Amino acid sequence: MARHRRRPNDDYSDGSNSDSPDDVSLSDEDEVFDVEVDDAGYETSPTDIDDEESNDTGDFGDDFDDFDIEDQVQLFDGNLHPREYYLKQLKEFNEAAYDDEDYSEGSTILLDGIEELWNKYCAWFEYDPQESFESVSLGSLYNFFDWLLGQKAGKNGRKKRGTKKSSSLGTYWKVFRLVYERATGAKLDAKLNRKMHRVLKKLAKKHGLSDQKRENRCMTVDDLKQQVETTLGTTEKSFSLGELRILCVLFLLLLAPTGARPASVLKLRYRDIRVVLSRDLDGGPHKVLIRFTLEFTKTYLGTKDAKTVTLPEILFDDSLMLSPHVFLEGILFRHRAFEAPSLTCPDAVSRLDIHPGEWELPLPLKPSMHDVYIFRRAVKTLVGYEMSPTEPISPTTIAGWVRRVGELTGFEVPTIPYNLRYNAANVFDRSSNVSDATRNLMLDHANSNPFQRHYLGRQLAVDSYALIRGLEPQNALVQKSCSIGHSISKRRPVNLTPDQAASVNSHPGIKKLASKVKELREQAKHSRNAMEKYKKAHDKLRSAKQTQRRALKDKIREQWTNKQAVIDIENQLAGLGFVEEPAIRKSNRPRRPAQKRLMNALTAPVESTVEGQHRRRDVAIYAVMAYCVVVEGPAVRRTNSGAGTMRRSSVKDEPREDSYYAEDGRRAAVLSVFIASKEERPRRCFLCVGLALRLEPGDPCIEELTHEFYSAGDLSKHFRRKHLKNIQEGDDIECGACYMPLDHKRHLQRHALQIHGTVS
Fold first, then answer.
1. CA–CA distances in Å: residue 422 to residues 279, 299, 391, 425, 563
2. Which H/E stretch holds residue 91?
3. Burial of 167 from C-beta contacts in 10 A (0-12 / 13-18 / 19+)
4. 374, 273 Cβ separation under 8 angstroms
5. Are 752 and 760 within 8 A, CB to CB?
6. For bias kind Acidic residues, which ranges apply (predicted)?
7. Residue 701: C-alpha distances to residues 135, 479, 635, 658, 684 (Å)
């Protein structure tokens, strides 16, 4: 019997043709759950339910061609199990286990979140949740969603941002219908469903929800280049480990040409990457091809087909900053990922050839790395950071990086990974080399409806006036004006001034919390219970201040464009030209030597010969490899915690002679970490000073690592928080100041007390 395709329903806010929560979208500004919901997993896209046509003639048709011959033989040649095995299996078969739909992990979070809110709502009114589902009415649904929109606090009193968009309310309703179906085994009444449309409109008006959709602005290649350049060159944004900075760039460079969902790129493992040396069809030098397989991230009704993308090397590339080959090969060589034992450096690739009569030479990766994620987060260790062997970078983390770097670049609108997906979709649509079917396959869409409704730019990149007048369209100008980079300005503020940051203290809510914290601080001196209340109140005050500062910064950035335009106009008309404002943005430290080397290698001019171009590429890959081991300190100096999170910023591991670091103060710092008298304990961290001994001269981290704390008590706090807390079982422990290995955590604590006077 044929399974019918579900028809699109007009009440779907996203135009999808199923009730799958994989196909819904939430606004970046909205929050209703007590869990993090990643934007990358819920972008709009229809989900098809394929027709399975029955064939009354008994002809298997094309499906028979896919039937394996060995399977056909085994089907009629006995069986693996005896008759009793299948009789027992039939008797014990649990049909209930197949009642639930096959949703992705992200969709399950949405369903569980709404169900948890329903249970909380019923408990508040002393209703039974299951009975309330079975007796649901229009009035109870109105009351529930009105209550839901009024939720301002989550677990442990955490303040929620609340719901700002009417489209998010539509999403909650779609998810609720699936929760209802999961709880009762039946679909919601169609008449009730139609009435709920008017209820949702009324609730949206009552709570002042906006109908404005998120702008689907594109990040063009020029915008991407500026984003990448800022990511690599800025010292205003710090990554805990240099490899994370490299991975942030690689993520953008793999996302840009594919138009893939961000989550599918973040899920790439080494087994999904295939590197080959390919013969050039025009008789030129061999080129490196990168083939990577992206898995479809929406798994409603089962896993979807994966797609493989091929990126050929651009040999004479004007900008290596836009070369995914340089960054990916830097990661592969840095982790020695190639299976060939001698393939350990990039210049070895230039010496390889392809066997006569063949088109490619595979460069296989080690099987032991097949299940390792490429995009992994960094974890704290005793004296710094290292890459986690198993934990991938989350979509929320990468989105935060992209947004912050976008601010530093000077973009007016918040940058999100989907800006690149929007751009790829529109470029594919305009290209005569890409059919609609190929575009839909690249975007993981079943048809063109999602593209037309959600990806086709609402800022029309068409010079329509020139077209109707029969003139040559200024397409390049119009397309640029519709991108996120057309309003870029390095003058746009990215941080609050000290006065602006302090102004939030006058907010009535902040004053009230500060007064409560002050009261509890006095009580905490005499009561252990009051101390716990004081800590919670202090955390709440700090969170509230951060919220107010974030809102103030967004407001200032939103108003800056028009205000600055008026100032520029008035100054020019007065004959003053562009008056430079006092610089309020300045980096708190210069670039590291490894960062300078990286930027110089990636911006090197194009060579005129193939050999020179290979050297240019290899130098850039070496620079990427070297920067991966850099452990970056905080972007803003924290005087109460020192710089104990930094490990080293070069690959030099051998200790130096004393004369080598006499000029930069490291010798004096080493002498100061040992106990000199019983009356005064050292105020420098001996572990951080030991790390400083391994750095190159002139490294800006030296000053932070040899920082002297205000008191020995502050040093003890730093030692516990930044070092002892991060020791994992099996870690190698060493005192860099004494060049002495230590057996275990207790040994380290005893050594710190007896030799360096650090109490822990």
1. 33, 22, 28, 5, 30
2. helix 83-91
3. buried
4. yes
5. yes
6. 20-41, 48-59
7. 65, 43, 11, 18, 15
Mean pLDDT of 322-329: 95
Task: Output DSSP code: residue 452.
Answer: I
Copy the structure tokens of residue 113. Answer: 């979140």
Greatest CA separation found in the chain? 98
Phi, psi of 376 (to 5 degrees): -115, 150
Q: What CA–CA distance (Å, rounded) separates 12 from 170?
A: 8
What is the average per-residue pLDDT within 210-224?
86
State the CB neighbour count (10 A cutoff) for residue 271.
13
**Half-sphere exposure in the Cβ direction for 350 (13 Å, CA):** 15
The token pair at 443 is 């975007």
CA nearest to 325, candidates 249, 268, 388? 249
For 459-484, give one letter per residue: b (16+ CB within 10 A) or e: eebebeeeeeeeeeeeeeebbeebbb
Give the percent of the chain with pLDDT over 70.
79
Q: How many CA atoms lie within 13 A of 674 on its CB side?
A: 9
CB atoms within 10 A of CB 392: 19
Q: Which residue has the tokens 């709880």?
A: 183
pLDDT, position 238: 87
Judge whether 170 and 228 are in contact, CB under 8 Å.
Answer: no
361: left (phi over 0), alpha (psi -120 to 50) or beta: beta
Could you tell me which of 531, 551, 550, 527 has the C-alpha nearest to residue 539? Answer: 531
d(CA 59, CA 66): 14
Q: Cα(89)–Cα(158) distance, rounded to whole angstroms?
A: 49
Are 171 and 215 a contacting pair, CB within 8 Å?
Answer: no
Look at residues 645, 657, 757 and name the one whose alpha carbon lies nearest to residue 704: 645
CB 682 within 8 A of CB 673: yes
List the one residue out of 270, 416, 382 whose CA is nearest residue 335: 270
pTM equals: 0.74
* Three-state DSSP string of 122-157: HHHCCCCHHHHHHCCCHHHHHHHHHHHHCCCECHHH
Please, are residues 161 and 31 in contact by the beta-carbon 8 Å criterion?
yes
Note the pLDDT of residue 654.
40
**For 643, what's the count of Cα atoms within 13 Å in the CB-facing half-sphere?**
26
Residues, the chain, total?
760
Residues with Cβ < 8 Å from 377, sequence gap 6 or more? 244, 387, 388, 391, 392, 393, 394, 397
Read off φ and ψ for residue 146, nearest 5 degrees.
-65, -40
Q: DSSP 3-state assignment of 210?
A: strand
Q: State the chain's mean pLDDT as an integer.
A: 80
pLDDT of residue 525: 75
Residue 351 in tokens: 């010496």
Q: How far apart are CA 55 and CA 389, in angstroms?
A: 50
Task: With beta carbons less than 8 A apart as the criterion, state whether 683 and 759 touch.
Answer: no
**Where do the DSSP E strands lie in 326-443?**
360-362, 376-380, 385-392
Stated as kind and residue range, the H or E segment containing 734 is: strand 733-735
- CA 137 to each of CA 176, 203, 748: distance values in angstroms, whole numbers, following the listed order: 13, 16, 65
In whole angstroms, what is the distance from residue 174 CA to residue 21 CA?
7
What distance in Å separates the CA atoms of residue 335 and residue 331, rounded to the nearest whole number? 6
Sequence-separated (6 or more) residues with CB below 8 Å from residue 271: 365, 369, 370, 371
Q: Can you tell me which residue has the tokens 């028809």?
A: 7
Cα–Cα distance between 38 and 263 in angstroms, integer? 9
CB 650 within 8 A of CB 597: no
pLDDT digits (tens, 9 = 90+) for 18-63: 444 444 445 555 555 554 444 444 343 333 333 333 344 444 444 4
The alpha-carbon radius of gyration of the chain (Å, integer) is 30
Q: What residues does 379 pair with on adjacent strands?
A: 386
User: How distant is the alpha carbon of residue 477 from its chain centre?
Assistant: 31
